[in-house]
Specification:
- The complex is a heterotrimer.
- Chain A contains 13 helices and 2 strands; from the N terminus they run H-H-H-E-H-H-E-H-H-H-H-H-H-H-H.
- By secondary structure, chain A is mainly α.
- Chain A has a two-stranded antiparallel sheet.
- Chain A is globular.
- Helix content of chain B is 32%, strand content 23%.
- The model of chain B has no long low-confidence stretch (mean pLDDT 85).
- The chains are: A mainly alpha, B alpha/beta, C alpha/beta.
- Chains A and C meet through helix 10 and helix 11 of A and helix 2, strand 6, helix 3 and helix 5 of C.
Amino acid sequence: MIEESASPPDYGLEQPLAPRRTRLEEFWLLFRQNRLAIMGLIIFILFFCIAFTGLLLTSGSDPVFDPSLVRLQEKLRAPFSKPHLETLRPNEIPTLGIYLLGTDDLGRDVFSRMLQGAWVSLTVGFVAVGISVIIGIFMGGIAGYFGQRHIRLDQVLVTCLLSAGAALVFFNQAKWGAVLLVLGHAYIFYLLLMRLIAVRKIPPKRFELLHLDTISIDTLIMRLVDIMLCFPSFFLILTVVALLPASIYNIMIVIGLTSWMGTTRFVRAEFLSLREQDFVAAARALGVDNFRIIFRHMMPNAIAPVLVSATIGIATAILTEAGLSFLGFGVPPPHATWGNILSDGKNFIFDAPWLTFVPGFSILVVVLAFNLFGEGLRDVLNPKLRERH
Amino acid sequence: MNHQNTLLSVNNLKVYFRSDDTLARAVDGVSYEIRREETVCLVGESGCGKTVSALSILGLIPQPPGEIAGGSILFNGQELLGLGDEDLQKIRGNQIAMVFQEPLTSLNPVFTIGDQIGEAINIHENIAEAEVNARCIQLLTDVGIPSPAERMSAYPHELSGGQRQRVMIAMALACNPDLVIADEPTTALDVTVQSQILKLLRSIQKERAMSILYITHDLGVVANIADRVYVMYAGVIAEQGSTENIFRQSQHPYTQGLLASLPTRSKRGQRLHSIPGTVPSAAYKPPGCPFHPRCPHAITRCREEYPGMCDYGGGHLARCPVMFKNDQWCK
Amino acid sequence: MNSANHNILQIKDLKKYFPIRKGFFQRVAAWVKAVDGVDLEIEEGKTLGLVGESGCGKSTVARMILKLLEPDEGNIIFRDQDISRFSEKDMKPIRKEIQIVFQDPYGSLNPRMTVGQSIEEGLRILGIPRGEKRRGRLEKLLKTVGMSPDSADRYPHEFSGGQRQRIGIARALSVEPSLVICDEPISALDVSIQAQILNLLKDLQDQLGLSYLFISHDLNVVGYLCNKVSVMYKGNIMEYAPTEKLYEHPFHPYTQTLLAAIPEPEPGRKQAAITMREDIPISAPPPPGCALQGRCPHEAPECRDEKMPFVKVGEDHFVRCWRVGQNGVARYEP
């Protein structure tokens, strides 16, 4: 009783197997299971909102919350205490009607100062990590992709020539410096010219020494990383900050410039393994240029561990900034940061413990949140946890 | 069938893997039996459940996410499912041993092969050091390792792939098991080595009068080594029978398709027969006969009803009523 | 070998040695002769099989033809142009002509790019402007390899191994190549899928006039698909012949062993005994002479002295073995 012969499916139209679930949905599905990471994410979002509203409410000529308003008669008031309205001028009355987190030794509202400080912490964290990630990706990408290429002797010599020239110019020896600089540039120009004219040239024998390979790019960059890692970075930052004029931007840049090594290592490791993957070979075989292979094909696959280290890096940067401010090398007063509130409060730790606890606890929570979120990200992005369809 | 003669029988085994939102029925009601002194092949494509069903014999399915959803596994009359870890430990290696696909990762790189074979003996037997050594050398000789006494102190990386697999076989034989489960033992090896390992397995099986459950996807290997064959598809047995039955009188469209699609030199210039479509994943199996979307003979009933095994006599069964005589729907 | 003009690709004495570096200063301790003098020729529109066991250097040859690896010595002549010393810039027009299909369907597609984006990279190279026209070409390519056009917006993880392999083939075809190197394209696939891909490759050859270099360890597949076969062992080509000749009258002991070891899907068929010994990994640099020494059942003293030249033993039939004479008569008991 063969009823009807069902026609075999037309395999001219192969359809995908798995149900449509985007990478993002899959990511969220895994991430959701990690409660601590979710908590970290919520705190992170909350912190972002607070910092942003804090910026709006505490800046301008007539801010809603004035963090630098001194009321000496109201100093060291406990949290939730009501102001003595009879002693205050109308513009000195706190916006909320009470001192939500108390006042400091100059009678400034700690709540307003915390709001202002939140934005500092946030920007320092993000900008510093942004700088370090950009440098890290650049250095790591070069080391991972072009690492096996060697630097030629003439390139080393020209670099020496140019830097010596620049140094001479800097130390007021303009004449000799200019000569060296011109020589260096002339050689570079000559090399470029040769490349345009002679397509496949074999260098003459007498130039062979100049074309000697010295060290590989990979060795150069990774040894630089090792050297950078040898410095106790906090003291390095301390030294640099002590030499530079105190400003929030200098701190961001200095933190960024001293924390790119981790990212470099991650990106290099990822690139080294990605470079051997077939899809990169396929792209090269198609004739895709190196720049596009690095940024279009490899970087999206290498970015996950960078994201994780960046998230944790933000926590470290916030902590570093707080530490610098605590030691008095940070953002100059009267601008409030969590670090200098903590620093101001330490003299009154027994009389006014909230001055220490409020910023200290905030730093703890925010740093912890970033770390938990980062760890959660790492777990989710770990390919071993992802199922292959 | 002679039950005295049955060494292992798996009845209606179901192994499911649960994830957040899916239930993968990796093994979905599989029955097979292995008699004493015979070589049985489980053949199927990746994800058809052949390895899972073998691992569950030794209680090696990680639970969760895996779960044994039903069935029984009788070994020498003893029920293996639900046995505690300690009891299973006594059976593993001692009565049932396993040889895996990847000989490099199944051997510990920091121990000599003498240590590793010796350990396999020591776990189950309490005998003197010197005797263990002698047994190891004997085992290495049996599996055809040249100058075994010297090779005892070699590390796995000092051996070739084929020799490593021979060492794995020696370890499996260490306690004279009744059954050796070989999970694709030659897939990672080169063809020349593969044929030597197959030859070794055949001779060992005869000498030691043991049974082998051989898991593979390679029909060439099956023809070479098996006494009886079970063809698996999407977690069920599609066809079973003697090697002759399967290769010469196959009755299931899947088996027929597989055999027809093998490229050989004799088919040069012709288009290969190909089974259209893809192997269904264990989590999204079609209803009815799991093979119906790819089957050239499928009828409407195949899409709705799960077909039973049709008996062709002599132990040759195929799960395809459409191909069966008198068009009767087997139960 | 005859260097007739109808060869799309000819390789002469190709060599690639990899250094083994040791110690703190990464000094070169030894060289691995991955490819040690390989000669190949692929006729226009035909398929050459390159057979060998794992690690014999066949993938290294593929990578050198694509210039993903720089050859140390030898010539790669593609359509009368020696590309072996070409720079990246010179290779630009050649790259479109030679494409590759990989073994691992999971690693060969970028997991972060949609199928369409992966294939479009090739169309971009061809200079087809973004938009309607490129989309049309993309969909046509997908249909050519038997995929539905709406696969373009999906990510690789949504496809099965065989489907990914089709996508990989579509990507290779996107630049309209004339030579496609198939590096074990079916060995990672399920048995029932292998035939689909083989048929597809055959159809594409008929439709587009492609030439294939088909790299495989499976002599059944090579015997089915290829016109001529080169047998490779440890960086050397041991035998080269038209498929029929090679399978009917293999001269080299290694070829004979390989053929004897084919697992035939026929029960009851007695396998020929294999007399070749198993390979033992040696850490020391390999001795001069034949690459097969230590394993070969017909070994003679002269095999240890120097490498045998590639000797013609019949029309289009070449063997590298001291024990096979110029006249094609084996000097050993077969």
